[in-house]
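Entry for the shared binder. Reason: the reviewer on the internal report wants the predicted structure included alongside the sequence.
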Amino acid sequence: MNIDSFDLNLLVCFDALMRERNVSRAAEQLNISQPAMSNSLKRLRSLLDDPLLVRTTRGMEPTERALELEPLIRQSLSFAEAALSPTDQFVASSSQRVFRIMVSDYVEGALISSLVKYLQEHAPNITLDVLTLSDASFQDLEKGKVDLAINRFDDIPQSFHQRLVWEDSFSCLVNAKHPLVEENSLEQYLASGHIWVSKTGIGVATGMTQDNSHKRGWVDDALATMNVERKIRVFTRHYQIVPLLVDRTDLIATLPTRAARSYSSYNDLVVVEPPFPIKSIDVKMVWSPLLHHNSAHQWIRRTLMDLVKADVS
């Protein structure tokens, strides 16, 4: 195939089709007619000698060839966008931009309050729209409808940019009268009741029971290596309720350390090191390649990382 004779607009159509997995929605995204998008798909199939998208019971699914091409074409379009973008630099102090950031309430409590304080001092006209992890999808993030997602992720689409925000250990949060404060032992830990708290990934979380321990995460995985289990009395997806529960009960909450320390000033709560080793977690920032070269987006990413570094120091 000769690149001189290839219609480069077809790459934009290919990218939209791969994002949407639907001809009509891809046409709507590019503001063209459905027949025009169908014709573009037909031309792409002919030029690349591959069906690219195949209709299945789950809708349109990409072929292996399409999946190979997707990150390459998306990166090429990202470079082209960067080359053609205005060179004006983002001025935070006068900007009225809205940043949409999707976070768990663990990250929200540990980072977003610092960001809001910084914005009030240095960029007072910027607005934050803070979303939970079930408010949007990876597709919304990929299309640039959401600026950033910050969380612990099991899987991140290959096309996304990502950066490690912090690595966190685990700590136990208990009330000051809890026996674990005086006797920090595995026996005392297992004799107590526990609060399980997590908000994993993007999308609706799976309901928890006492039987599906394989879905509980790092703390219970660590206990499983010792062939023991803790007695979970509360399953919750909301970190903000944890200090109230711990304050009013004799339950233990084993949390990421940043979250536990942020709650330790609540009444008489105490942070205790777990009496067994637990694998640390990586919290990452991910964003769409469509926004990678945007000067405003670069500013908010840099600002967030500066705030994290300042907190560590």
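Summary line for the report: The CA atoms of residues 25 and 122 lie 40 Å apart.
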